[in-house]
Amino acid sequence: MIKHIVMWKLRDAAAAELIKNRLEALAGVIPGLLHIEVGIDFSHSEQSADLVLITELANREALEAYQQHPEHQAIVPLVKAAALSRSVVDYELLP
After folding, report:
1. φ and ψ at residue 27, rounded to 5 degrees
2. 47/42 Cα distance (integer angstroms)
3. How many alpha carbons lie under 13 Å from residue 37 in its C-beta half-sphere?
4. Tens digits of per-residue pLDDT, 11-52?
5. Residue spans of beta strands (DSSP E) within 16-72
6. Looking at domain 2-92, which CATH architecture does it have?
């Protein structure tokens, strides 16, 4: 299983709710996407990101398919326009 975690600092934190809703709508749509969680930061500290995406995918192939899936690609322009910065980590959960 693969964990794919992305954190964004946004130009306007008001965009977080729209992005959250669009990302959560991917649940059950993309094969191999086992779990999706999206959180909006409430601390608003200088070090915090505004939005976090935590997904679990079946394997590396499912991660690649998720990233290329048309429903995911439809959200990318919205997120890119709203983001000041993006950090990502992908790792494998060992049995």
Report:
1. -60, 130
2. 12
3. 7
4. 998 999 999 999 999 999 999 999 999 999 999 999 999 999
5. 33-40, 51-57
6. 2-Layer Sandwich (3.30)
